[in-house]
Amino acid sequence: MEPVFALLHVVIAIINFSKSNGTACILQGESAYPQLSKDGDIIVGGIFSFHGSWEITDSSYVVPPPPVKCTSLEVRALQSSQSVMFAVEEINNSSSLLPGVSLGYKIYDTCTSKAVGVQVAMALVNGNEKTVSDEVCTKPGQVQAIIGETFSSVSMPISHGATCECLSDKRKYPSFLRTIPSDYHQSRALAEMVRHFGWTWVGAIRRDDDYGNSGMAAFTQVAQQWDICLEYSLPFYKTYSQEKVTRIIEHIKSSTSRVIVGFVDPSDLEILLDVFFQHNITGYQWVGTEAWILNPVLATLDKNNILQGTLFHCKYKVQNNSDDSPVCTGKEKLSEIDSMFTDMSLMPYFNNVYKGVYAIAHTLHDLLGCKETCPTKQQPDSLTLKMVHFKTKEGEEVYFDINGDPAARYEVINWQTNKEHQHDFVTVGLYDSTFNVNNRLTINVSSIVWAQNINKVPISVCSKNCPPGTRKAVQKGKPVCCFDCIPCAEGEISNITDSIKCEQCYQDYWSNAQRDKCVRKETEYLSYEETMGVLLTAFAIIGALVTLVILVIFFKYKKTPIVKAHNSELSFLLLFSLTLCFLCSLTFIGRPSEWSCMLRHTAFGITFVLCISCVLGKTIVVLMAFRARRPGSNVMKWFGPPQQRFSVFSFTLIQVLICVLWLFISPPFPFKNLKVYKDKIILECHLGSSIGFWAVLGYIGFLALLCFFLAFLARKLPDNFNEAKFIIFSMLIFCAVWITFIPSYVSSPGKFTVAVEIFAILASSFGLLFCIFLPKCYIIILKPEKNTKKQLIGKMTIN
């Protein structure tokens, strides 16, 4: 298109320069005459490619070249010219459009040659007179508007078939308008259709001219936005050498994509299809443009039909013709003929020509101020044309946007082979650029017949889709469509196909085995339902019951010497505290709550101090009792029952104060431990203040060591039933349990930390219970004869 306008602008410049210097106007070059014409008050120009190719017989550059020799008749151009003629006749017969004004036409053939296109455009603008004139060269154009050309590279002011996006640039082509949508929309429609079918890895062949290069550039730009990759984009022109064509074939044969987008002309594709057939390149799914998708000649793959001299299934009488075809009689009816010349499959294309003529007529009607009649003739300009807005007889709106382009509406056509092994053009979808982005393309997939008659959408991808649970990782040095599928890491998921990244699950959730869903993490705590919880609960209850049984036995035999001799009041208080020790272990089992967390450690700390205080009191009593037996000793009056109760209360009160400070400053609280296990949440009681916890435990340890030390001092006292020995043994068990508890508590994970603490409580409680009270129960129940004062007091040696 650019060479046409460049040359046209130069010629206009020369004319203006000649005028200013008084130089006569002279027609440059040979005259060009229309193939079809009709006189009228206002003339409409038409430029079509009646022939698909051309030849230059002399290219020596020594003499002026002869006229171009046109070859290969184009049926579509003939039908397009018929559309112009039909529209002109219809307008001339109309009483409402341009009344009193007759339209005429001049239609030229360009042979698809840019040079011829420029020549006939000049002929339409300036006329064909070869006379030398002294008149001013700037005169009204011979025609008011020009329709054509089909090819973008040779198009002029208004076109029915030139789709190159470049022609929308009004700085370069201010007078160009068209009734066919720009390749900008067609490229987007093609890319959207490719994306609709999931084809992310495609090849492309483009016509090596403005139409193909510009259209493919627009397609590539849109495709990249939607992650559609071009494996190759190969230029082709019908004048390419055999070597270039061979390279194209080899490139396609070595490719892996199964879809080819063709921005080509029918004549180009005819050549390619022959070459494809020779090299057995089949099975590809083609995506075509409006330039060739409805071409009936191409559909039959029979190029020779264009050159045959036959028409309407009969042929004219020719000398020495041995063909048995019937001779035309002149009485044949067109309505009964089925041939390429009567094929109406390209009616949407011809309708663009029809709308172009009507756009010119409506513009003239408005410009001339036509009412009942049109008073004058006036040259229309492109601005006026762009403002036209009308409806056809079928109700279709025709208008131009700011770039001189119409609204883009396309039919999606599918080539389907019928029973006669011929191609039918079946509409399977629609694309309308005026709709919402998500609703522009509608396709009935079930009605599509695919390449090689397969019944499902062909697959054309560089890499298969990454399923949920994986993410895409682009292969090094390859397009984004070529990737590996990397499984998501633990704790991450992807729940869509072709995810580019894995999403991290929230902290209370974890990825499932398939890594496509976040599931709530399993919560772990020591519960009453599990085996460990049941066993520990059972031991705690058994311990409490045994303690209560011993309490009952002691209460029943409280008058016996063995009970009275070992301080029955402290024994009852000790048994009560041991019962609480067994029961407080139950607060460690079950789902941690705010109250259970505060209760479990404080109850444990206070009850154990109460227990050890009682044992400590009994130990002190033993020491004091033997010192009281010495002559003149009055020690017992200083540690009688009131002092014993006060000591127990004082020792316990200190622990109570420690616990109150702990709870006041930083109490224990329920806590979700996410660090031990990745896929589990450990519900535990956070200590709050570690100092508080270890202060409670340390105070218990201090009292236990003090008790052990005092009992150790009383171990050799001469009583037959010296309780200090049993207290020593119980304190050894107590200290051993809690010393081993510390490393086990620190190193045990999750619920086992709680289990270790419960085990320490139960083990130390059972140790105290059995070591201190089991021997007494043995004598009370099984050896009652030893339960006498005489048996309890043996020979005492005073040092």
UniProtKB/TrEMBL annotation:
<feature type="signal peptide">
    <location>
        <begin position="1"/>
        <end position="22"/>
    </location>
</feature>
<feature type="transmembrane region" description="Helical">
    <location>
        <begin position="691"/>
        <end position="714"/>
    </location>
</feature>
<keyword id="KW-0325">Glycoprotein</keyword>
<comment type="similarity">
    <text>Belongs to the G-protein coupled receptor 3 family.</text>
</comment>
<dbReference type="Pfam" id="PF00003">
    <property type="entry name" value="7tm_3"/>
</dbReference>
<dbReference type="InterPro" id="IPR011500">
    <property type="entry name" value="GPCR_3_9-Cys_dom"/>
</dbReference>
<dbReference type="GO" id="GO:0005886">
    <property type="term" value="C:plasma membrane"/>
</dbReference>
<keyword id="KW-0675">Receptor</keyword>
<keyword id="KW-0812">Transmembrane</keyword>
<feature type="transmembrane region" description="Helical">
    <location>
        <begin position="602"/>
        <end position="626"/>
    </location>
</feature>
<dbReference type="InterPro" id="IPR001828">
    <property type="entry name" value="ANF_lig-bd_rcpt"/>
</dbReference>
<feature type="transmembrane region" description="Helical">
    <location>
        <begin position="569"/>
        <end position="590"/>
    </location>
</feature>
<dbReference type="InterPro" id="IPR038550">
    <property type="entry name" value="GPCR_3_9-Cys_sf"/>
</dbReference>
<protein>
    <recommendedName>
        <fullName>G-protein coupled receptors family 3 profile domain-containing protein</fullName>
    </recommendedName>
</protein>
<dbReference type="InterPro" id="IPR000337">
    <property type="entry name" value="GPCR_3"/>
</dbReference>
<keyword id="KW-1003">Cell membrane</keyword>
<dbReference type="InterPro" id="IPR000068">
    <property type="entry name" value="GPCR_3_Ca_sens_rcpt-rel"/>
</dbReference>
<dbReference type="InterPro" id="IPR028082">
    <property type="entry name" value="Peripla_BP_I"/>
</dbReference>
<dbReference type="GO" id="GO:0004930">
    <property type="term" value="F:G protein-coupled receptor activity"/>
</dbReference>
<keyword id="KW-0472">Membrane</keyword>
<feature type="domain" description="G-protein coupled receptors family 3 profile">
    <location>
        <begin position="532"/>
        <end position="796"/>
    </location>
</feature>
<feature type="transmembrane region" description="Helical">
    <location>
        <begin position="726"/>
        <end position="746"/>
    </location>
</feature>
<dbReference type="InterPro" id="IPR017978">
    <property type="entry name" value="GPCR_3_C"/>
</dbReference>
<keyword id="KW-0807">Transducer</keyword>
<dbReference type="Pfam" id="PF07562">
    <property type="entry name" value="NCD3G"/>
</dbReference>
<dbReference type="InterPro" id="IPR004073">
    <property type="entry name" value="GPCR_3_vmron_rcpt_2"/>
</dbReference>
<dbReference type="Pfam" id="PF01094">
    <property type="entry name" value="ANF_receptor"/>
</dbReference>
<keyword id="KW-1133">Transmembrane helix</keyword>
<feature type="transmembrane region" description="Helical">
    <location>
        <begin position="532"/>
        <end position="557"/>
    </location>
</feature>
<keyword id="KW-0297">G-protein coupled receptor</keyword>
<feature type="transmembrane region" description="Helical">
    <location>
        <begin position="646"/>
        <end position="665"/>
    </location>
</feature>
<keyword id="KW-0732">Signal</keyword>
<feature type="transmembrane region" description="Helical">
    <location>
        <begin position="758"/>
        <end position="781"/>
    </location>
</feature>
